[in-house]
Amino acid sequence: MEGGTVRGRAGHLINTRALPLRRYGADPPTSQSQSQRQQHLRPLAKLATSAVLGLSLVLSPPSPLCLAKQLSPAETIVQEVYEVVDQHFLDARDGGYSSERWQELRKDALRDLGKGKRGEEEDARRLAKRMLKRGIPSGDPYTRLLMPDEFERLSKYDVSGVGLNLGTREEYEQRVGSARDVIAGPTTTTNNAVAAGYDPFVVLGVVIHSPAEEAGIRQGDRILSIDGEAPAGLTPMQAAQRIKDARSAETRLRVMRASDGSVAEVAVPRGKDGEAAGGAAGAAGDLVRWAQGKGKSYPVDFKMRKGKDGAREGYVNLKEFTARAPAGVREALKQLDAEGADYFVLDLRDNLGGLVPAGVEISRLFLGSDAPVVYTMTKGGGLQDRVPHPATYQPPLTDKPLVLLVNKSTASASEIVAGALKDNCRASLAGDTTFGKGLIQSVYELSDGSGLVVTVGKYVTPSRLDIDRHGISASFKTVPTMKEQDEY
Q1: I want to staple 451 with a disulfide (CB 3.0 to 4.6 A). Which of 132, 146, 237, 348 is the partner?
Q2: Is the pTM above the cut of 0.70?
Q3: Catalytic residue list
Q4: How far is 326 from 320, CA to CA, in rounded Å?
Q5: Which residues pair with 354 in a beta bridge?
Q6: Are 428 and 488 in contact (CB under 8 A)?
Q7: SS3 at position 303
Q8: What is the mean pLDDT of each run of 10 residues along the chain (488 residues)?
Q9: How far apart (Å, rounded) are the C-alpha atoms in residues 396 and 369?
């Protein structure tokens, strides 16, 4: 896996931001109601607002009902696949999915278990694949079963660099449980940030064997400060990036425990991927070294060019939406602006996407933090703005004219940026209509270690344009002159 993404069908990059890879509920009660069972199957990570024109990893523990009925491990696999699809699958392309048909396929699979020549769990996975092939409309090529080795490879990506997946209190409530679950003990503390009304980020999940887990951080804990500074006004991704970009050998986190409400200082060692590079300090120094062909690899390239009308064109090429992309684009814009750019060109051609939160952060460099970026539609129906907004307004980095270069291979997170900037009248698009991939997938870990990828929603632009299969249209074939931009 490279750059925090994996490659899906047709080579599309899919987001793997959310990583709560710690199974919970190892000893569930022996009998539970249908509603309680659904509560246990609720995803344990946020649906990446990262979420995703790609994947967010969520956790589905063994169904308590399966255990209550004393189903075998093989039968449990079939039951889990059935329940996840039944509760979360969105027939986003109106392919004719039938819940009645899905129930019949489950019955057929349970009946046929043990008839194959393979081992029980392997046979169960084969029958689960058969269920998906027959029950999921052919227009959805993304809903599928991952074998345990495939899921293990997918589950190793981490934005924070120390194994933390952060979210807001609201996201925790949506994805994990009620807000009451966040803090089991006292909800007050002498911490200045909390006293001032700051609502700390919640740990949605912790990667197994990661530095964060080894340091004792657990799901539901709240992050009060990062290296002595409260992350007030930041989005969860910005906070995770702050942890990743820390220059010391360890990151000091002030944590409020979910177990009892106590507050503790935790030192989290940072691995090789998070270590500060020598030489020039920070993201700007790394970016300069990359532009000179040295040091760390960045997904951003930039240079000053002469426009058609002689204007100074600040050209920025973004190859992929990785965790480092927002910082890279920010520094490129700053340097080009300092060099006197009259306008900017952001080249998203052949950019297949990546981390959707990175796309949101880059959009906000041109829009400000209060502008709508993207809306999601899930099985519950209705459009929702699930993109986290900073607590305090963050103005755009620049208000200079902007052109986006797009083509038929501009997809996924790239299309979120294109749609947001176009619909907010912030940029003109040049090139061809984009690819048109606007479906949202989540990955659910099953009890046998396999993973189930399920289409759970779709994205629409701020003006309610359905991205999927339509794409974002361009207004110009080539980069327009500044006069053409003004007239547009």
Answers
A1: 146
A2: no
A3: 412, 437
A4: 11
A5: 321
A6: yes
A7: strand
A8: 29 30 30 38 32 43 51 93 94 94 96 76 94 94 90 67 80 56 41 49 77 86 90 80 77 89 87 38 39 51 92 95 89 96 96 87 94 90 79 92 96 95 96 92 87 92 92 94 82
A9: 7
